[in-house]
Design brief:
The chain is an alpha/beta fold and 252 residues long. It has 2 domains: 4-97, NIF3 (NGG1p interacting factor 3)-like (Udp-n-acetylmuramoylalanyl-d-glutamate--2,6- Diaminopimelate Ligase, Chain: A, domain 1); 102-220, Udp-n-acetylmuramoylalanyl-d-glutamate--2,6- Diaminopimelate Ligase, Chain: A, domain 1 (3-Layer(aba) Sandwich), CATH 3.40.1390.30. Helix content is 37%, strand content 27%. The protein is built from 10 helices and 11 strands. The chain has helices spanning 4-15, 47-55, 79-90, 99-103, 109-116, 145-156, 181-191, 205-210, 220-223, 226-239, and strands spanning 27-30, 38-44, 60-65, 93-96, 120-128, 131-144, 161-164, 169-176, 195-198, 214-217, 242-245. The strands form 2 sheets. Strands 5-6-8-9-10-7 form a 6-stranded mixed sheet. It has a 5-stranded mixed sheet with strand order 1-4-3-2-11, with helices on both faces. β3, α3 and β4 (93-96) form a beta-alpha-beta unit. The longest helix has 14 residues, at 226-239. The protein is elongated and about 55 Å long. The relative contact order is 0.17.
Length: 252
């Protein structure tokens, strides 16, 4: 049975958590029991995800959106105390991996989305303080926009919002999971890709239309489930332990 410090040291190195500046305090945010026999995964740190992980008899919970952020008051009171109490009572360790998981080439949200769609990763996309967050991808043969939409809806259990203003046959894509925002859209335009895929919808309807750009908004939550699932397989193989994914869709 692996020790908590063995798992966290592996994660820190594998995800290269110090390689990009982030508002999330990436890494171990709460230290629970010293041994790890089962790891739970969830997109968000929350009372609900903590309680479900405890019911699953997990010793550790790995999340994309952690509890501690540099933009949030770290005082433990009110709703934050309720969260921390859940961790104390269950002995559950909490590990967060935000931008390091978005950008990871092997198990990252963006690389996994590209692989899910049957494309090949090409170049880094959307720089954040000199480091790419997303990736571009290419298909050897064109894929229809409707096929991409249907695949995302099915595999991510989501309902895509599609702006179908570009080519019907897609050969190049730029991907930024979660909140790609206006910056991601305009970066995709500059990259000259056929499709921009992200999570959150932003008001770019007429700009996308006038620039002949296809855009898919597949949901913030949905686009950030794939990296955690890929990471769970790595940990299962590395440490020979049990994992469980806790899916708590937000509709966002």
């Amino acid at each position: 049975m692996p020790k908590l410090n063995q798992v966290t040291e592996f994660l820190d190195k594998f995800l290269d958590i110090d390689d990009i500046d982030d508002t999330c305090w990436n890494g171990l945010q709460f230290e629970g029991t010293p041994e790890v026999k089962k790891i739970a995964f969830a997109v968000d740190a929350s009372v609900e995800s903590f309680k479900i992980a405890a019911k699953e008899n997990a010793d550790m919970l790995i999340v994309h959106h952690g509890h501690f952020w540099s933009t949030h008051d770290p005082s433990i009171r009110g709703w934050t105390k309720e969260r921390i109490d859940c961790l104390y009572k269950s002995g559950l360790s909490l590990y967060a991996c935000h931008l390091p998981l978005d950008r990871h080439r092997e198990v990252g949200n963006n690389s996994e989305l590209i692989k899910l769609l049957g494309a090949q990763i090409k170049d880094g996309f959307l720089l954040h303080k000199g480091k790419n967050i997303g990736w571009t991808g290419v298909w050897k043969r064109g894929v229809s926009l409707s096929k991409i939409e249907n695949l995302l809806n099915s595999e991510l259990n989501t309902r895509c919002i599609v702006l179908p203003f570009g080519k019907e046959k897609i050969k190049t894509i730029a991907v930024c999971s979660g909140g790609g925002g206006y910056g991601g859209f305009y970066e995709a335009l500059r990259a000259g890709v056929d499709l921009f895929l992200t999570g959150d919808a932003v008001e770019i309807y007429y700009t996308a239309k006038d620039s002949d750009m296809n855009v898919i908004f597949a949901g913030h939550h949905a686009t950030e489930t794939v990296g955690l699932k890929a990471l769970s397989k790595v940990l299962e193989k590395r440490f020979r332990l049990e994992t469980v994914f806790i899916d708590l869709p937000t509709g966002l």
